[in-house]
Amino acid sequence: MERARQDLELSGERLPGLAAANLAVLSGVAVPEISASAGPADEVEQIAGFGRLNFDELIDMPAIAEVPRESRDRPAIDIFRSEGEGWRSLVIESRYITVSIVTAEPGYRGETERGIKIGSTLDEVTKAYGAAYRTVVGRQGVYHAFDGNGILFQTDELHGVSRWMIYAIDQ
To answer: Which domain holds residue 121?
Structure first.
């Protein structure tokens, strides 16, 4: 238990709100409120002109993979991929769900509707978007998801934005 507490205190440098909430639970005190910002309803994040309102335009390109329907339990799946200068997209479409992702890669020169770009700091992201809805630590960095905006930021070990993605899941 003490080791977990020490690890959480160290993680406070990276994810202070999440660390504070976990430490509060371990200590049996009230959990501090962590707010997430959904953003204005008319705000539409875009990368290279693609956003949640026009992801369907990405499907106009030839599919890079097609998995034929084998049974009722295994519907057909089409995968579409495209890329441009500093960005790439992936759309996975089946009979039941469509997942669309556009990623701003290192070197992408654009920015989000709130002024975040590759190289922005995690502090700048937090000031612009509030606390992340979900934070996941991965091998290539830390991922901060803002569900209400359909945007996700990947930060590196220096807390800088190394990639950002916009996504939509349609069922």
So the answer is: 48-170
